Amino acid sequence: MSDIVIDRPVSAATVQAELNYLEFTGEKPVSYQYEPPPGVPKRSGVYRPRRVTISNARVAPPPGALSLDRNGFELHRHASALNDFSDPAKIESVYYREAEQLLKQATGARRVVVFDHTLRDGNPERSSGVREPVKYIHNDQTFVSGPRRVRDHLPADEAERLLQGRVAIVNLWRPIGETVQSSPLALCDSRSITLNDLVASDLVYPDKVGETYALVFNPRHRWYYFPHMSPDEFLLLKIYDSAGDGIARLTAHTAFDDPTSPADAPPRRSIELRSLLFF
């Protein structure tokens, strides 16, 4: 079983930190996920750090009941059966199956399709294939690319049938190895984001082009984080939802430099797993 939790030992109710917002110039930002052609920047777009208040969700959660469908994120406790995340085969055979059950249980989805995962490590000498934490505010899909993900991962007839109903994309994010002491995730309450705050951006891979959202600054944004997350906890992040009627459709998020982190804090290690949910 997994339970929503907010009761870890905590520090201050809020921190002041800088988050990197997009300064929209009228051009669509592009981010290459591989070494781009000569003379092409790996990331375009102008990002500007903005100092914001980030509330400790363990002490001062958003008003009302904190939930994935209300705020776009929620925290659970459930220790994984997998301790060693260095073997991709074990991640797919053990962790994917485990995550499918956790996602069904937490969301009520009747079907879950895990389609990929990313390992991250703040150590600059990280292993090959492991990425660094992302310190630009983003959401992993757009309202255009969300449905496209269904078509990418399911047979055409089945995808079109499922897209007639409610479809969501949810990330399951978990620390690896030890408690997070550096580069935690900041999460923007979905209710504080307007459509005008979102800017579609291209994510370029060798074989395809994906689309994500960057976020432009709005003083009404409300930011939260869960300090000291341990490997027996996981976050659910809403990335896309076809539902309307007041249900959170996404949540912008970013890693950030926590001013309360010890100077000798170990690099953050984590795994994020992406899934399609059908209701």
From TrEMBL:
Keywords: Methyltransferase, Transferase. One of its GO terms (biological process) is methylation. This is Methyltransferase. The keyword DNA repair does not apply. It comes from the Bacteria. It comes from Paraburkholderia polaris. One of its GO terms (molecular function) is methyltransferase activity. Signal peptide: none annotated.
